[in-house]
Amino acid sequence: MNQFEVRTESHRQMVDVTRQVAAAIEGAGEGICHVYVPHTTAAVVINEHADPDVARDLIAAYEAMVPDVHFAHAEGNSDAHLMTTLLGSSVTVPVEDGRLRLGTWQGIFFVELDGPRSRKVWVKVY
Amino acid sequence: MNQFEVRTESHRQMVDVTRQVAAAIEGAGEGICHVYVPHTTAAVVINEHADPDVARDLIAAYEAMVPDVHFAHAEGNSDAHLMTTLLGSSVTVPVEDGRLRLGTWQGIFFVELDGPRSRKVWVKVY
Amino acid sequence: MNQFEVRTESHRQMVDVTRQVAAAIEGAGEGICHVYVPHTTAAVVINEHADPDVARDLIAAYEAMVPDVHFAHAEGNSDAHLMTTLLGSSVTVPVEDGRLRLGTWQGIFFVELDGPRSRKVWVKVY
């Protein structure tokens, strides 16, 4: 199991971690790369990383989608738990010749939903 | 393939199945645990299972997020199909030494979206 | 890695690709089938494919869920990027005796969110 750290700087933030994931699987040959976030208020997604406006738009939209209901959880971050379950705690990407086989425009984003914090990402090829 | 049953008691309900999944993979050594829900109106997610308020907040939020559009499907449960596709039919978790390697606060929840019903969960380590 | 093409005909559309995935894994024995979409404005989900009204309802709901916020991305398709991250870029399904082990009502849908376009789907059993 490879692990790397992500230090987020905002309450909500998308962090492009494609390079870190690629480095973590070097020499892994062939298989399926599992990128796993061991937190309950942060997620991981695959999407466009060429235009940084896309990541900003996503964060704005995630915030706007949180419904106006009464949340009981005393920590006050149920919105972050909600978006985490919708976005997901892991992604899987094909690996060939020790390299991530992503689509042309795809990158891997760590999604901070209740930061800033120090976070971890676990990576392994199966 | 291991399988266990979940009997849900409400129309919408999050059921913590972390123990059942852990039991299903005992002795599996190392790999990736695939937890699969073979239904179209129930899902599986990973999130906090320490404070039961989180699960209650999530259910309230899922219901509130269903948009007010006309649904054509005659069974009248398109809201459940919708939330199933957003939450997902499977999760994957690393396994080391025959044990689930979840984050500190993470548990695995079966998400009933059109109950109460008798449901199945399939588990296997690859 | 197996690959097949999907030619979508509408701006938003769910395309049942269960048969193409099943054909792509023939002879694969046992494992986990990874269905991967290498695009950033198209996704893949598992849901009911018996009644075509379900797929129509899902598309209507996905559109209605996009929040009314200002999107900065100049291409004007941030709504499609948003729904892609919520639905996901891959699904995983158990394979036994070279066949997909889906639930009774489950099918695999390619979800076009910014078409019509010519798209690709990657399939492999691990």
UniProtKB/TrEMBL annotation, chains A, B, C:
Give the source species. Candidatus Sulfomarinibacter kjeldsenii
What is the protein's given name? YjbQ family protein
The record's similarity note reads:
Belongs to the UPF0047 family.
Among PANTHER family, the record links this protein to: UNCHARACTERIZED PROTEIN YJBQ-RELATED, UPF0047 PROTEIN C4A8.02C
Identify the InterPro entries for this entry: UPF0047_YjbQ-like, YjbQ-like_sf
The family database entries (Pfam families) matched by this protein are listed as: YjbQ (PF01894)
